[in-house]
Fold this sequence. Notes:
77% helix
Amino acid sequence: xxxxxxxxxxxxxxxxxxxxxxxxxxxxxxxxxxxxxxxxxxxxxxxxxxxxxxxxxxxxxxxxxxxxxxxxxxxxxxxxxxxxxxxxxxxxxxxxxxxxxxxxxxxxxxxxxxxxxxxxxxxxxxxx
Length: 128
């Protein structure tokens, strides 16, 4: 396929995507989608629903992995028993659900650690 054919195919796919989005959600929603995608540098290869599904899966998996690490650490290093680990997990789940629905934010949680406990979590922080 020539470069021009590839470009034409991409344009046709983009037009089809736009048509489907406008048909499904309306022109105003499509305009908002364009602004959001441009702001975040997201191509049209995936729909917003697909991106949301992927984000939810990624966050859920990250929370489960961190919960497992935290409970194993509490068990191994701080002699928590099974009941205490289970209570910790319930509290973590409550905070995770609050985060998911927007009642709390990551920034607030980090701020509490830093301001009230003088704990700074910056492992792997590539921004310095």
